[in-house]
Amino acid sequence: MTPSAEPVLDALRPGRGAASLRDGRRRPRAWRQFTRHGGAVAGAALLTLITVVALCANWWYPGDPLRIVAAPEIWPFEQWQYPLGTDALGRDIAAQLAHGARATLLIGITASVAATLIGVSIGALAAWWGGWIDEVLMRLTELFQIVPNVVFVLTVVAILGPRIENTVLAVALVSWPAIARLTRAECLSFKSREFVQACRTVGLSPWRIALREVLPNALPPVLVMGTLVVAGAILYESVVSFLGLGDPNVASWGRQIGEGRTLIRSSWYLCAEPGVAIMLAVLALNLVGDGLNDALNPSLRKR
């Protein structure tokens, strides 16, 4: 690229130019918009709290959280050593919730990253190259979408075995199609923009245009989708563990609900406490996703 062509491309790229340079001297506009969203700030604070609990689980509750430590079915706040009570086997519920937060976030984040990598790669290839490549990749995407997600996840875990790695793989396989379709739509919208045409005019290679110009501009909506994938992964993992297909050596919120459902009439807290934890985690991720959508979506940013 010639030195004189670079300023022209900077002016044509989305979000560039003199106004963008002035905004760069202040706090990022997206961050200001995010902090103005009360629900997003509350969700981020709640998500931070859950993350701290997950990171400190080994320090607060060392050892195996599934070991028996007291009498069974001690109700919450009945004994100060076990503020959330014990389950039907005498295991500390607070310890299981803390260690379960780590397993739940690990599965959610890992599955979201894997699904995002697969979806972005397939969506970008389909949009940029078009033709028969687009047809094949989109038909493959539709093939994964027509299968019921929960059934697909349960089938994959049942075949491969009840391990965390298999749960992550199953969740990633059902989550990437939505990301692929979104990435394809975003890349198609940028493919015919002026700055892309200018890049072609100055002789940039198609791969460089796709990776350095189009894809970075198409990623903000994908990041929002990624937070929703994490929330969905938490729900999928809870369903898998609830049905007894989760890793038997790992504390899980869904597993706690599954083990406590037989005693829900006499000791309802066994299901209520992990159920509230799942609800709060999913709620926090959805609030953060809404805030990111408002901050990164140009049409909403003007409101």
TrEMBL record:
GO cellular component, as recorded: plasma membrane
Any one GO biological process: transmembrane transport
Family: Belongs to the binding-protein-dependent transport system permease family.
Location(s), subcellular: Cell membrane
Primary site of residence: membrane
PANTHER family according to UniProt: D,D-DIPEPTIDE TRANSPORT SYSTEM PERMEASE PROTEIN DDPC-RELATED, OLIGOPEPTIDE TRANSPORT SYSTEM PERMEASE PROTEIN APPC
Topological relation to the membrane, as annotated: Multi-pass membrane protein
Source organism of this protein record: Pandoraea nosoerga
ABC transmembrane type-1 domain location: 101-289
Keywords: Cell membrane, Membrane, Transmembrane, Transmembrane helix, Transport
Superkingdom of origin organism: Bacteria
SUPFAM superfamilies found in the cross-reference section: MetI-like
PROSITE patterns, per the entry: ABC_TM1
Descriptive protein name: ABC transporter permease
Any matching Pfam family: OppC_N
Regions crossing the membrane: 39-61, 105-131, 143-161, 222-246, 267-288
